[in-house]
Amino acid sequence: MRSKGKKTEVEYNSWGQAVSDGAEKLRSEIVHLFITGTKMKSYVLSVNGDRWREFKSNLTNFIYTHKDDNP
Predict the structure, then answer these.
(1) H helix and E strand count, the chain
(2) What are the sequence ranges of the domains in the chain?
(3) Which of 18, 55, 60, 65 has the greatest number of C-beta atoms within 10 Å?
(4) Measured on CA atoms in the order 1, 10, 60, 47, is the torsion positive or negative?
């Protein structure tokens, strides 16, 4: 994990589901690092989704604003 300087490999099947032991280790580390109640889980995921969409929108706007600029 990031705080310990470790990397975890996760293997996925054709359906996009995690199938390796690394997925369970990753999930347990995330739960351990972010101890939140079930109410907070939905809030955190919602805020993360909003921020991700905002980032993608800003990136797209930046690319299309500067696509014709010559370096």
Answers:
(1) 2, 0
(2) 37-70
(3) 18
(4) negative
pTM value surpassing 0.90: no
Q: What is the pLDDT tens value at each position of the chain, 71 positions in all? A: 445 666 666 777 787 777 777 677 777 777 776 666 667 777 777 888 899 999 999 999 888 887 776 65
CA-closest candidate to residue 18, choices 8, 7, 6: 8
Query: Which amino acid is present at 42?
Result: S
C-alpha closest to that of 23 among 6, 38, 10: 10
